Please model this.
Amino acid sequence: MKYLIVGLGNIGDEYSHTRHNIGFDILDAFAKASNVVFAKARYGAVSQCSLKGRQLVLLKPSTYMNLSGQAVRYWLQKEKIPIENLLVVVDDIALPFGQFRLRGEGSSAGHNGLGNIEFELDTEKYARLRFGVGHDFAQGGQIDYVLGHWPEEQAALLPQRFSVAVEIIKAFCLSGLDFAMNHYNKKGI
Model:
């Protein structure tokens, strides 16, 4: 069985390790735990690893957030991966910092990366792992907030949260969506 695990973010040093790039950071943690590295490929940085007989394709799109769907569609088709084996990792301002929410379908909730994936795949029925980044910003400050860096106290907690995210991804691939949702949803820090 093959899986496509996609971490959403924006390319460029100015976006590195911002809240909006949590998908990239989580995939980097997964790659490190799996002892693999990313290489430049069409539409993004790609790595592959094996997990108990399952093949995982890890993708960090290079299309910028708003066009992530192009990369997702391409790699699903190229690797012949069924949509039920797609997992997209993304930031979510509606969740408190560090909380995870795994779902098998749903709306983009205004997230441009998810919206473009839905447009390109013509469906909302794909798994997404949302990582709570909180919403500690004034009205009109959302863009600066999600493109901002973590405060020191939250940054110190990220490695532990990345470890949990790696566990969730493994559970999704090994035990299925329902098991992973029941086991990990709403577990805060």
Notes: The mean pLDDT is 94. The longest strand covers residues 44-51. Strands lie at 2-7, 39-41, 44-51, 54-61, 86-92, 100-103, 127-132.
